[in-house]
Amino acid sequence: MRRSSFLIGIAGPSCAGKGEICRWVSRALEAPVLQLDSYYHPLDHLTEAERAVKNFDEPAALDEDLLVRHMRMLAAGETIEQPVYDFARHTRAAQPVRLTPAGFVIVEGLFTLHWEHVRALLAASIFIHAPDEICLARRLERDQRERGRSAESIIAQYESTVRPMRHRYIEPARGHAGLVLDGTRPAEENARCALGYIDSVLAGATAGPRAFAAQAS
Fold this sequence. Notes:
Layout: E1 6-11, H1 18-29, E2 33-35, H2 48-52, H3 64-75, E3 80-82, E4 85-86, E5 91-92, E6 97-99, E7 104-108, H4 116-119, E8 124-129, H5 132-147, H6 151-170, E9 179-182, H7 187-203, H8 208-216
Parallel strand pairs: 1-7, 1-8, 2-7, 8-9
Antiparallel strand pairs: 3-6, 4-5
Helix pairs in contact: 1-7, 5-6, 7-8
């Protein structure tokens, strides 16, 4: 008999600290992670030049229908074939990866709390925030080290799409979170708070998630 899974959503701006919190919580709960980055629309129909200027920081860039279908399957305890997105070519890799649900599944990405249909499937929801200047500094360090990009190109993209889309789409979703965490605090400290909040949701604690949000903000 398949066992249903408890879906935990983690959202927040680029480089606010989602990935680090996700790793801590995933290890603690032995939970697989469903990455929203896997669900970008493939851009095979566009030229390379057109792909390079595509806005990847708006919800329409992702395949919401496939994401919701896969989340429903995971919540029901069913295995999915998660797409793999090739960011170098802006398309999907030929082979997906199999994701088998456990007692918990973490759903992590910029827009995890943006869509109503996605939020409805989450049993717990966490938002990580950090100031723009912190996020930009982290993105500069990461993209130069891991992706070989120039500082100029990183800053240009941040100012043209990342920052404005953050304030248009991502920050408003903060109000839907059961727990809000400060991404400038130590990851281990935030992870303990996140796990305490998840425990409270599981137990149906009378204090409720908003009490945790007030402590963590």
